[in-house]
Amino acid sequence: MNPAGRLWLAARQLVTHGTQAAGSVAAGSVAASVRTTLGVLSRTVATVARPAGVRGVAVEAGVLLAHLVMYPWGALTEQSRPGGPYDCYRTDDLPPTERGLVIADVRAAGTPVLLVHGFADNRSAFAVLERALRRHGFGVVYRLNYSVLTALTGDVRSAARELGREVEQICAATSAERVHVVGHSLGGLVARYYVQRLGGDARVHTLVTLGTPHGGTVAAYLLPTPVLHQLRPHSDIVAELAAPSPGCRTRFVAVWSELDGWIVPQRNARLDHPDLLVANHQLSDVGHLSLPVDPRAVHTVVSALASPTSAS
Questions:
Q1: What is the tens place of the pLDDT at every residue in 216-231?
Q2: Half-sphere exposure of 219 (CA within 13 A, CB side)
Q3: Residue 3 belongs to what H/E stretch?
């Protein structure tokens, strides 16, 4: 056989073997995905089958109904305040002895807390958590409403820039150097992007995330909106946040639940990153919408923000 014939035969064999190998890899990926999905479904069924799981599902349904009722209130109350968005509950004008009755660390009580809601939601989701923070003496608690178009046409990066502007306004209004942020679902990912990629670690002391898809969620395939593309596993946003982040000064607390129906698989709401100071807290029977109102989750948030532990 002449050299040209041998070259053609070698190329055909390479293509044939490559196609077979690719087919094997694809089949292996599909099998792995099926195993992962079955594992998630099995764990979810086992969680729901427990009495606590049944109660958690019932509470989640009640919270969903409450969200639908309170949504208009959350959209309107900010505009109705006579002092504007920063006319919020304060205890920083109380004498230190009085403030000490509700919180042990006066410096912690003086740090503003910004609450950032999730996908297709608004500030009304934090009604219970805001009251809990007030009862424990936090001086400034503010609930952010980012653009309602974020769920349809927005993205994580633009929402993070908007968050950064809000943080700067809060610092200017309160003379605070740093703030705490609590983010539910998408709100936690927006806040994390601000901290890791936009220099927000200079402003955010502690970031608490509740049911945030740090590793993405398969449920984001349900709708083809731009922001949901970014919440899918292996998206550019997920990859960008997983990249090295040396010297990040923010302390992270991630709260996640085995009963979370929005984060699939549920463990993707954990935050595992070698460069970040993170404490993960696992719950077993709390639904996605219930996380900002569940007493255990609320206690975790209040305890984390009241702790005098400094960020590295």
A1: 999 999 999 999 999 9
A2: 18
A3: helix 3-49
pLDDT classification of 44: cutoffs 50, 70, 90 = low
Non-local CB neighbours of 101 within 8 Å, separated by 6+ positions: 137
- Residue 204 to residue 259: CA distance in whole angstroms: 29
Of 230, 227, 167, the closest CA to residue 199 belongs to 167
38 Cβ partners below 8 Å, 6+ apart? none
For residues 186-193, average pLDDT: 97
Residue at 212: amino acid letter: T
Q: Is the pLDDT of residue 86 over 90?
A: no
Give CA–CA dist 9/25, Å, rounded.
Answer: 24
pLDDT at residue number 168: 97
Q: What percent of the chain has pLDDT over 90?
A: 54
The pLDDT of residue 50 is above 70: no
CA dihedral for 127, 128, 131, 133, sign (positive or negative)? negative
Peptide linkage before 85 cis (omega within 30 of 0): no
Q: Convert the pLDDT of each residue in 90-99 to its tens digit.
A: 555 555 544 5
Per-residue model confidence (pLDDT) at position 15: 40
Beta strands in 136-244 (DSSP E): 141-144, 179-184, 204-210
Tokens of 249: 């000064």
Greatest CA separation for the chain: 97
Q: What's the rounded Cα separation, in Å, for the pair 192 and 187?
A: 9
d(CA 124, CA 109): 23
DSSP 132-143: HHHHTT-S-EEE
Q: Which two tokens stand for residue 302?
A: 């209040």
The encoded tokens of residue 144 equal: 């952010």
Nearest Cα to 58, choosing from 254, 268, 294, 297?
294
Question: For residues 246 and 277, is the Cβ–Cβ distance under 8 A?
Answer: no
